[in-house]
Amino acid sequence: MRYAKTVALLLSLLTLASCASTPPTETTADNVTEGSDPVTEPVKLPEPKLTSIYELNPKHEEGSHTDMTSTSFLEADYRSRNEISEDIAKATVPYYTRLKQLPDGSYILLYNDEHNGKGVRMLRSEDGVNWGEYSTVFAQYSDKVYANPDALVLQNGDILCCAAWRHTGSYYRNPSKGGISIKRSTDNGKTWGKEQVIFIGINWEPYMLQLRSGEIQIYWTNTTCYVLPSCNNTSTGTAILRSYDNGYTWTGDLSKVYSGQVVAKQATELIDGVQFYTDQMPVAVELQNGTIALALESRLNRNNTYRITMAYSSDNWAESIPLDGEGPADKLTNHFVGTAPYIAQFPSGEVILRYSRLNTSTLHLADPTGHNFTTKTVKLDNMKYWGCIELVDNKHTAVVCSTTRYNEGKENELFRLTTQKVNLNHTLFIKDVDITVDGNSAEWGTDHDALFVGSESQAQMSVRFARSEKGLGILIDRLDYDLTSKDSSTVRIAMPQNKLSYIEVTVNPDGSYTAKKLVDGIHTDIAVECAVTVFGTVDNGDDTDEGYLAEILIPAEHLPEELAVYAMLYNKDTKGAGAYDSPDMMNENNNVEWIKLK
Q: What is the CATH number of domain 4-20+44-60+429-597?
C-alpha cells in the first residue's frame, strides 16, 4: 500500500505545526557499535489503513438512544449516489420503487414497469450497487395490470410480495374489478409461488408490516371512485387486513368488495352532496414502545394540495373508523407539505420520515414516539418520485431509493432508478484506549462509534473518539480521491463558557495543522499531539488517491468535564471548486446542539 507518514508533537504554543516525512535509518555494519547490547525487535504493528464509516458504528441494544435523540441528525453520503441504467431496468418509467435488504445481505428492488404500472419487475444485487438483469414478479394480462409493489421479509425467512391490480377499462365504475394479490418466495426472491388474491376492491399502494407478535398487516389506499355531475373524483382512506399464519390466510371476505378494516380517514371536500375523504399511500412501523406509527399522504382538494399526516395506534387499531367517520384521534394532521411518505425506526430509537417535495426526497428525524420531528431536514435532489427508505447493514444507515428524471438532450424525458445512502449521527459512546499518536489506527479497532461528514463532495470523513489518561484521542479517516494541500479536516470540542466557545483542531494532508481554543471571543493556541498518514500523493491530479488518516491527542488539561463535538471538512479537488462540508442538520454556531460523547 502506498502511504507516507508525518508525525508532529506540538510542545509549545504554536499557531501552525508541520513536520516533513522522515525515512527510517537503515541498520548496517558501519553504524553498529562493536560489543553493543543485542537489539530487541520492536512489536510490528499492522500497516496503517483507512476505515470507511460502514466498517464502524457497532450495533447497540434496541432503544440505546431513547432519551438522547435531541441532537441526533442525518448526513447524506455524496459518494454513494447510484443511478441504475435504464438498460438494466428496461422500463420506460420505472416508478414506485421498493428496496429491501435480505437476510444474506443482498438486495431486491421492485418497481412498476410503467408510470402507473402494467406489471411489477424486480432487480437483484449482492452489494446494492451492481444490479443484474430484471425479472418479472407480476406480469400483465391483456385486460389486467399490476402496480405499486411492496415486499416483506418475514420472521421465518420467507418473502411476500404484494401488488395492486385492476382490470383495464372497467375498474373505475366497478370495484370488483380491482384488488390486491400476493406471491411468496422461499429462496430469497429467486422464484415466486402462485398468485393469491387477498382483497377485492379498488385500491392503490399496498404496504406490508409484520409485528413483533408475528401478525402480518397489509395497509392500502382504500379508493372509492365517483362519477358526479360536476366531476369524476376519488375518495380514499387507509384500510388493513391481518394474517396470523405468515400470510397464508387473511381477515376479510373475498365474496365482498371493500372488506378491509378502515383505520385512517380525514374529511376534505363536499362535492355534489358527496363527502370526500383522504389519508392515503400508507406506510407503517411498529415503534419500540409498541405504538404503530402510520405515515400518510393527504390530498386536500382537486387542485392537488398535498400534505403529510401521521396517525398512531397504541392498541393495534382496536377500533374501526365508520363509513362517515374520521380518525384516529392520535394524529399529526397535515403536518408537512409533501407527498409519498415512508417511515422507519433506527434500532437506537430515532424515527426517520421520508417524503417527496418539489424535486427532492426530504428527510426528517423524530424522537422514539414518532411525534416530535426535527425542523431541519436533509434533501436529496432529483429524487422526488414515490420513493422508499431501507435500513441496512449495521442499522445506522438508511438507503433512500427513488426515480430520477432527466433529459440528456433526447426528445423524450428519461427516468432512472436511483439510490443514495444517508447516515445517522447521534450521541457517541466512546471507549478507553491507550493511544499512541503515530498515525496508525491499529490500537483503535473498528468497534467504535463514529461521526460521519460527507454530503457535499466526493471527500468524506469518519471521526472516532477515545478517552485516555492523557486526554481525548481523535482519529479522522478521510476518504478522498484527489488530495490537495488546500484540503482540511476540522474537529471542534464544545467549551462550557457559552455556545460559541470551543477547542478546534484542523489537519491538512501535508501534515500541517492548527490547534486553538476560542473562549469569549479570544483565541489561544494550545499544544496537542498529531500524526498524519497519507495514502496517495498531495497535489498530484494525475493519480487517484485514497485519502489520509489523522490521529490527534488533546491533553486533559484543556478539556471540559462534559464533551460535545462538531466536525467539518473543506475539499478542493485539482479541477474543481472548493466545497465546505458541514452537517446540514447541525448548527456550528451553537455548541448546545453538538454531538455528545458518553
A: 2.60.40.1190
